[in-house]
């Protein structure tokens, strides 16, 4: 509030006294204290490096950038108090209308969705069980999954006390089912690796009356996936909010069976004596997630796809303009299903290794992040801002030129954010 507005509001107050002090002290407008953060480059102030993201939706690189409509919704969310449960109720209903499923809730990421869903199927609506976790004595606590679907994020299931039972075949699965079986868990990206495919898995769940869950964290695009798996009959379907949907990185979607999602929510704030208290989603993130979803559903997906293809082609052409450089454009079938590029060369002929190349991209101006190893450099464009493909193409040409003219560059390529993933896989 500026001075003139402040004086005006005094004039309209019948009793000045105590109002005056509180208005002055708690004014939301801090301009007189010179705290206008919006005008500052806070990352620069902190000395934190920013970069063009050619890698993709990695948590280590803070996921995705939220569109302005989403940050506007988040800012709007800060303006009023609401009851958290009422907000989640209404937003859950809205999301289930949008995605034509029975029910939905905004979770703390796909990982959080996995944890609360598992806690929910184990405890049902029994509050005594809810406060007992992660001790699962007296509860169904076994989650069956195909061995080939196992990955590091299964920690979300065991964190709440569940035990994993890994199987290979339909026969194994049916043999493993017993009175302790709480849930059947499926990794969408694992569909081709396991012998039991989507529909058979769903049917097995129905046959034995056990809820089925599918992790679709990185499986948007395509947009159809948001509808496909609830329709197929999975009881619980989870997506990351901060990957392809470009919502808050700490949010996610849990879709499906209303009873099971209500049970999952018993483990979430505002309730405190729960295993999920630390998986809080604040009102701003709830609104941001809903808005990101609405925006995503309205998007012209074909147009966006063509833009990505054009960007990838431009970068690929820049690399291939150098003798001996090869590249492949491909689209992963599951997870990060977007136009992607792999650049490689014989580093005996071109005097730079892919790791050194990635190091040069990272330490140049502007800094550019890619994926890969010492065999190739990996690039996607879906997390870039439109136009940045030209900068990336230019930097790639500059670095290959430098290599041609005798690169005697860095051996120090160890400070790679991808290191943590290699460790997790081991
Ligand atoms: C990213 C990812 C997760 C975790 O999702 P968050 O939204 O970051 O919590 C879980 N499973 C898979 C397969 C993922 O790719």
Description:
This protein is an alpha/beta fold and 426 residues long. It folds into 2 domains: 82-298, Type I PLP-dependent aspartate aminotransferase-like (Major domain) (Aspartate Aminotransferase, domain 2); 301-425, Aspartate Aminotransferase, domain 1 (Alpha-Beta Complex). It is built from 17 helices and 13 strands. The protein has helices at 3-11, 17-26, 42-46, 68-77, 84-98, 109-123, 127-132, 155-158, 170-176, 198-208, 225-232, 258-265, 283-298, 301-320, 354-363, 388-404, 419-425; strands at residues 52-53, 103-107, 142-146, 163-167, 181-187, 212-215, 236-240, 252-256, 325-330, 340-345, 368-369, 371-372, 377-380. The strands form 3 sheets. The protein has a 7-stranded mixed sheet, sandwiched between helices. A 4-stranded antiparallel sheet has the order 9-10-13-12. It is globular and about 70 Å long. The protein starts with a helix and ends with a helix. The model has no long low-confidence stretch (mean pLDDT 92). Bound molecules: pyridoxal-5'-phosphate (PLP).
